[in-house]
Amino acid sequence: MRAPDPISSAIETRLAAVQASERLSAWSLIVSFMGDAIGPRGGVVSAGALQTLMQRLGIGAGAVRTAISRLAADGWIERSRDGRNSFYALSGDVGDTVLSAERRIYAQTSLLPAGTPRSLVIAPEPLSDATLRDIETAGALQLTPQVFLCFALAEKLPAGLRLPGATLADAPTLKPGAAMLEKMAEARQVSEFERLRAAYQPIRAALDLGPTPTPEDAITLRCLMIHEWRRVALRVLAVPAELVQPDDPEPETRSLIAAVYARLLPASETWLDENVMTASGPLPPPDARLRQRFGCSRA
Questions:
Q1: Residue 183, domain member (yes or no)
Q2: Are 215 and 257 in contact (CB under 8 A)?
């Protein structure tokens, strides 16, 4: 009897774990795939190829259609037809959002330069959940219900952190105590980085020891990994390098994800070449963004 392929086994194990944790949202998975794999190759994917990949990831045709309809209604996806064939592309209206996300997803680090200024924003009253989410997205650390630590001079804070009626103050000598370090570890997504590191170390070992993955396995694992990685990379709080604890798991985890990505890239691009069409023919070759991801320049 033929021994099971270690890469295929690793994919099934990881896929089952993600499905069990209910982290596999169809619409989010489609956006991850479109941004990661299709964006650098012209931005258009055929419906048939998308359905094939999603099915491999355990997402049924009905769920894909529902997700596409939702994404189109929300302005994320543009749909077109050529005869009987349908094609999807990320909307031009979300272009800046996608590029901003890519810079964070594929960066070498989330850390800010050592010595980055810090300031405090003191809100005049407790804030709504929506405003708190906006402040978190803008890169601030909530210290109390109304006090936020920001990493920029008060006069240079982005608009999202200039709350109406708030007091702004530079805090160049502010050093985190135990309580602040605990909040920072949570905002730094420490537990999520550790979870991903534990999940993908065996997969890297399988890639190092096993045969070259098939194109189907490579694109499946690439899509799944970037989907998981994207969730963490877009939420991690960027802080000055000197405030990071020695055991911060981000550097090792980011390096691990970058290494697995590099191993999967050639075979996964072969899958795209062989399976994805546009209305005018095959996908164009990848642009420079793909070669420079995670700070690596690939020929």
A1: no
A2: no
